[in-house]
Amino acid sequence: MKKLTYPLLIFSLLITLGFVYKNYENKKNATPILLERPKAQTISMQSEWMNTKQAIETLLDQLRRHPEDLKTKIKLAMAYIQESRVTGNHAYYDEAALKLVEQVLAKEPENYDGLAAKTTILLSQHHFSDALLEAQKFVKLYPDAAFGYGLLCDAHVELGHYSEGVAAADKMVNIRPDLRSYSRVAYLREIYGDFEGAKQAMLMAVKSGVEGLEQTEWCRTELGKLYENTGDTAKAAQYYEQALALRPDYAYALAGLGRLAKLTGYSTVEQEAKSRYFGEAGSFFKKAAEQTMDFSFYDELTDCLAKQNPIEARQNAEKVIAQLAQHANDDAAESDKGHYADKELAYAYLKVGDTEKALTHAIREWNRRPDNIDVNECVAWVYCQKNDYATAAKYIEKALKTNSQNARLLYRAGLIFQKSSNSMRGNTLIQKALFINKFVQP
Asked: What residue spans define the domains of the chain?
């Protein structure tokens, strides 16, 4: 009996380990489920949700019956990428989609949709250097595909390679002039200070889209923001309201009206509209947050609360930090996991007066993409809050390299140069900012 005990124990242990490993593999390869959307939705959005839910449930059912069906996995991954856009739950759906995509690429490394989806997810997670490598691989394999150049454009722009971004956008729009290509052209024109050209391109994007779809109303809202950023609040309101009429309770249009309320007293519109849109700026952002998970809505709410209730404003700002940090990659984790959100965290920490943590996150973001003008603006503004104006001036100079006419950037640059012994240039930039947008808030 003693001679049999040891082999039996080994055999039993191997069986147990086998079950544990199989259970681990099953969990690792389990298909991510669809999450319920927030309850606060209009009838039209509930109808869209039911259609989306039915389509995704059909895909999930197909995968349960045919777990190795790569085409279905790709379709589900793409559905989750779109659900990520609609709900703002990027942390869950980006990871879910990436899991499915990786399974496809393990079997078919050059799968067109797989590579496109993976690059899209990496961009969403702010893994821009990795996204650039994937986009370059994509256009090399599929040189005639317009979408690949859009991905390449996005990666280059986020890394601050603006001339390369322009070349990719030109290639994209020449292959396929549509909503995706026009919207990228608009963004690049804005970066280079051509607001009028940006408005024209974004209007073309809107006209080439299907009314009511999220992508189209996003473009319409971005068009409104271009007018907002040049001080034409009436035109901006018109586009935000159109977006809401075509896609009720669209979060980014609500946030646009919230910004206008904060800037111009938009809440003085007639009572019926006031009732529909909640009237006060903070209410716009609260309602937007009910529709889509986006830290920026709570960040804007902090500004609204600051003038009314500083204690509540600080509490809200701390919630923003917690929300960002919950899913962010803090660089202590694996480099390929989670989202990078250091620029956003830098600004969030400024709202609570913690300039040291703000600087830590700002520099961390700068180390990843030192050529991006928005990142340089962020670092400069943090140094400005630390009263280190000489260092701030070095970074804000880099932020001005594309001749951007963003009024907030110009106003901040003006303040920094005023404080760093270049008052003449500072005054000129502040006056220019106010000429572009009299409502500018640095």
From this structure: 51-124, 293-348, 369-442
